[in-house]
Amino acid sequence: SIRDLGIGYDSTTKDKKAMLPSSASSPMITFRFDNGCVAQFRASGTEPKFKYYIEMRGRLGEKKADVEKRLTKMSGVILEELLRPAENGLILPSNL
């Protein structure tokens, strides 16, 4: 699913309108994946930076190390596919 608080869109609601407050001046986009991964992207309010947060929900009984492995893999795919760092002059974190 996709939620864009910059324009007030949420793909999970019947009318496609976000339930949370939206603002064009402080947009935040959230992607939720079927595997439990959630990625949020927003501009920093105080610095010329683009911030992101990616988290992964583990399955019942799944080991933490396995969740971390899936999260690292998913983070790399998300950042590469959505941000296209080579095309946009961005630098990915060294741990990906």
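Above is the first protein from milestone M3; the second protein from the same milestone is given next.
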Amino acid sequence: KHALRTIKKKQVSYLRRLTTLVRDPKFQRIDRMKTVALITMEIHNRDVIEKLAKSGCSDHQDFAWLSQLRFFFDKEEGAYGACHVRQTNCKLPYSNEYQGNNGRLVVTPLTDRCVL
């Protein structure tokens, strides 16, 4: 639980820095759009961390953790390494899917499942 609190503090600090960056009037429009999409994803990540802490998740075998969409990179696999996506007992190769830079992106548990 302490580790989750520590990572949440880092997450909130990161979100504050991104928010400050977006508010800069000199920030280019396209960079602002990318950063807003990043902020949306990071807010979702913050919410996931809160959910894990509230559920008492303390082990990598807890269902609260296993049910999250997780990305792992194995540098020993293949010539350049390989990224895999895991959720519960499913492991799929990551194929560089691009979700776009959608300004109306909303992340929910359902969209997490759709990405997988």
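Note on the second protein: The two ends are 27 Å apart (CA to CA).
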